[in-house]
Design goal:
Length: 183
């Protein structure tokens, strides 16, 4: 199963957070005033706002709930929320609270530092899905870590489901342990 040894690595590529601005938001007014928004209430009840720097997107609901995605760290999440609050000032909505950030999901990508035989892993590991005709990666649910991995034959991995960077690293370590056990 293991061909080449490299180094394990993993990097956060997306943090999904939710928060509340604790204020009703007039989405139609926001969409009419701001150019970086999309709002189509017949299809979806939230307004999409795209932020250039940091490159993120957020869903804003009339209740004041916000889901922000695309940031790679919490500093970028905070900068994005600050820009949303500044945008709301343009339509005379003043947010006076510091929004409480709740991480919903962290997506990280990296490598386990070795080639993987996905056919063997699909048979030997529990909680896997592998349909190479449909998708070249193996889906591996690592329940102990509350993480789901996509594994590829070149050793590249994508990890999702964790809520802290520390959990990402622990999940990767558990994954590598499990891979070594079935080797």
């Amino acid at each position: 199963m293991v061909k080449k040894q490299g180094k394990k690595e993993i990097t956060v590529v997306n943090i999904v957070v939710s928060t509340s601005l604790e204020h009703d938001i007039p989405l139609e007014k926001m969409a009419a005033t701001l150019s970086n928004t999309e709002y189509n209430p017949e299809q979806f009840p939230g307004l999409v706002i795209r932020i250039k720097d940091p490159k993120t997107s957020a869903l804003i609901f009339s209740s004041g709930k916000v889901v922000c995605t695309g940031a790679r760290n919490l500093a970028d999440v905070r900068r994005s929320l600050t820009k949303i609050i500044e945008s709301l000032k343009k339509i005379n909505i003043k947010i006076t609270i510091e929004p409480e950030i709740n991480i919903q999901n962290i997506v990280a990508s990296g490598s386990v530092g070795m080639d993987l035989n996905l056919n063997v892993l699909a048979m030997k590991l529990k909680n896997t899905e592998y349909e190479p005709e449909q998708f070249p990666g193996l889906v591996y649910k690592l329940k102990e870590a509350k993480a789901t991995f996509l594994l590829f034959s070149n050793g590249k991995v994508v990890c999702t489901g964790t809520k802290t960077e520390d959990e990402v690293h622990k999940a990767l370590d558990m994954l590598i342990e499990n891979l070594k056990k079935v080797k």
